[in-house]
Each structure stands twice: as C-alpha cells, then as structure tokens.
Design brief:
It is a single chain. This protein is an alpha/beta fold. Helices cover 43% and strands 12% of the residues. It has ten helices and seven strands. The two termini are 16 Å apart.
C-alpha cells in the first residue's frame, strides 16, 4: 500500500472504531485513536508474513500490545486484516463474546494476553531473544503507552534488550502525553525519553505518529543489523481524528452518546471522502 492508501484505511478503521466503542458502551477510545495510525501501518506495510489463513506461521513477525487497554484499536485492525469477521467484532461488550477489554489469545491474531502495564516489553524481549537463539529472521514489535513508562519492569527489559543487542526488536511509545490521571509530566515525568533509552543502548528515533507519511518513512529507516534494539517515540494526539476528543484527558476512557457518535462519524467520513477521490 502507498501512503494515501494507508491513510484511507486508517480513517476507515477509525470510523469502525468509533462505532464499535459506541455500541459496546465501553473502551479506551482516546488512546485507541492516538495509536491507530501506527497500528494500521504495522499490519499493512511493516510486518511480514501476517496471514489470517496462517495465524501461527513460523516466520511471522510478532506484535505485542503492551498498552492492552487500547485493544479496540487492535480489534478493528485485525478485522481489516481479515483475522476477525465483522459479526464477531460486533459482539464486543456483549455477554459471551470472545472479545474482552484487553487482548487475549482466544482472539485470532493475538500473540499474548496483555494489558497488565509494564509486561509487554519483557515479553517482547523474550520473543526477540528466542528468534536470535533459533537464528530466525522474524521481528518483534511492542507498543507501549507513555503513562506505562512509570513501570519498573520496562526498564529491566530495556537493560536486557541492550545487553543482548536485540536489533530484531522494535518498541514503540505512543507519546500522547495523557494518561488516566492527567498529563504524564505531572504524574511521573518521563522526558527526556531519548537520553534515558539511549543510555540503555537503544537506537532511539522520534516520529510524528499523527502523520502516516512520517510513520512509514521512520519504520523503513530502521537498521535491523546495527546490534541495537529500536525505540520509536511516536508523538501523537490523544483522541486523534475526532476534534472534540483531541488532547482531552477525560477521553482516556470515555463513552460517546448518540450525538457525539454521529458527529465523530460525520467528521471521519468527510476525510474518507476526500481521500477516496
């Protein structure tokens, strides 16, 4: 896919996300929206051998959603990729659904149960070490939240990633600056991200996670032979793509009413129409 096609797909996924969260009456929609561009690029441009017909293909790249509370973004991406049927995604929030509020391996295409914050990167480090030991070419991608950076287990994993020279590991921080209790720099400051992760031996790259063009360019610039694990600091906007949610902390976990859903869908549909020309 070219950049415009990826942008169009991300907007279609964004519309689906809003509708699904509205129907379920639950979801971490603000963070869903901020990481959705990167997730779309990963599944449709970056990761190799991701095939819904062979969800456990040995040579597939692995993805771990460490910020598991934003699973709705992953669900709509998996649906677009063909792992989930629409009628399954429509069960989100209903009794007996296989879809819960965090990723579980019951769902096709999901590698690990996640969402206990701070666990995703240690799991990803283990996966990357396994690939090195088995001399396999597949890569591991881990998406974390910026509020999650207060978890000590992340820094234990960061040290291990540097020690074992895991250049087959890419971690992404969805840097939208807002967590459930407010601005990250008020709750637990994490800047300068680049300096601290570089000190652990990581290759640190900043990108504009609101720009599909910059996302694609950044992923394609990664040197998977430099003997360093990679950290992408994805600078994003909480609630990206829905104007009344953007940069508003209360939408970390927010339920849309009927009017808000209608307004959000209308806004997204206008961008879909423009990109479809």
């Amino acid at each position: 896919m070219n950049t415009k096609e990826l942008e169009l797909l991300a907007e279609k996924n964004r519309k689906r996300l809003v509708e699904v969260v509205y129907a379920a009456k639950a979801g971490h929609i603000g963070g869903d929206l901020s990481c959705l561009n990167v997730m779309t690029a990963l599944y449709f441009d970056v990761m190799n051998n991701i095939d819904p017909a062979q969800p456990k293909a040995p040579q597939r790249d692995r993805f771990v959603l460490s910020k598991g509370h934003c699973v709705e973004a992953l669900y709509v991406t998996l649906e677009a990729k063909g792992f989930l049927k629409p009628e399954v995604l429509d069960t989100l929030g209903k009794f007996g659904s296989i879809l819960s509020g965090h990723p579980t391996i019951e769902v096709p295409g999901i590698e690990v149960n996640s969402g206990a914050l701070g666990h995703g990167l240690p799991i990803g480090v283990g996966m990357a070490i396994a690939a090195k030991m088995d001399k396999q070419p597949w890569r591991t991608f881990v998406m974390m939240g910026d509020g999650e950076q207060g978890e000590g287990s992340i820094y234990e994993a960061a040290m291990a990633g540097g020690k074992y020279k895991l250049d087959n590991l890419v971690a992404i921080i969805d840097r939208n600056h807002l967590q459930i209790s407010g601005d990250t720099e008020d709750v637990m400051p994490i800047d300068s991200i680049k300096e601290r992760w570089s000190a652990f031996g990581w290759d640190v790259i900043e990108m504009n996670g609101d720009s599909m063009e910059d996302i694609v360019k950044t992923f394609h610039s990664i040197d998977y032979t430099n003997q360093k694990p990679h950290l992408l600091v994805s600078n994003t906007t909480k609630g990206r793509g829905v104007s009344f949610m953007e940069g508003i902390a209360k939408w970390h976990h927010g339920v849309l009413n009927e009017e808000q859903c209608r307004d959000a869908v209308k806004e997204i549909e206008a961008r879909i129409a423009s990109l479809s020309k």
